Amino acid sequence: MALPSLAPVSALEVRLGVDVGSLAGADLARAEADLADASALVRNEAGCDWVAVDGVTITAPDPVVAVVVRAALRSYRNPDGYQGENLGGSYSYQYAQGETGVYLTADEIRVVQLAARGAGTGGLTTVRVLPAYDRTRRPVPREEWDHPDPWRWSL
């Protein structure tokens, strides 16, 4: 089962400056494909799917949704990968030298990875707890709590 896109087509329509719900036919199919590709790249970088147990509800944080929409928007606006155009003298144009489909920039990857760590999937958090009792189970005097070697009381 394919996972749903992390951003709706309506978010792409808003950034394109068209009425929400106005994309149809081939344009709608292109928008959905670009959003699906961008979502797959983001999930690959994050290591999590950001979909609730119901398989439909998206749980991605807003910065991740923004990254998906921006990546899809680049591809939607420039599907052939034009990189340059010159109108002076004789007309010329230039195709992109690199990636022409959906891609993530280094800054977008950083945003996705930070969001994934915030979701509890990318980091390990430890908590250091100082013992309140020494090895003989007697309470440690309060003046010794800040001793340079707090582990001397560990079991």
Q: Which terms summarize this structure?
A:
155 residues; mainly alpha; 2 domains; two-stranded antiparallel ribbon
- Beta-strand portion reads 5-15%
Oligomeric grouping of the chains? single chain
Largest sheet: 2 strands, antiparallel
Order of helices and strands: HHHEEH
Q: Which class best fits the helix and strand makeup? A: mainly alpha
Query: Cα-atom Rg, whole angstroms?
Result: 26 Å
Figure out the total of helices: 4
Approximate shape = elongated
Mean pLDDT: 80
Report the strand count.
Answer: 2
- Domain count: 2
Kindly report the spatial arrangement of strands forming the biggest sheet: 1-2
Indicate the low-confidence ranges by residue numbers: none
Distance between the termini: 50 Å
Question: How much helical structure, as a percent, in the residues?
Answer: 25-40%
Write the topology of this structure.
Layout: H1 9-16, H2 25-46, H3 62-77, E1 82-86, E2 92-95, H4 106-118
Antiparallel strand pairs: 1-2
Helix pairs in contact: 1-3, 2-3
Structure write-up:
The chain has helices spanning about 10-15, 25-45, 60-75, 105-120; strands at about 80-85, 90-95. It is mainly alpha-helical and about 160 residues long. The protein has 2 domains: about 10-120, no CATH class; about 125-155, no CATH class. A two-stranded antiparallel sheet has the order 1-2. Helix 2 packs across helix 3.
In short:
With 155 residues, this protein is mostly helical.
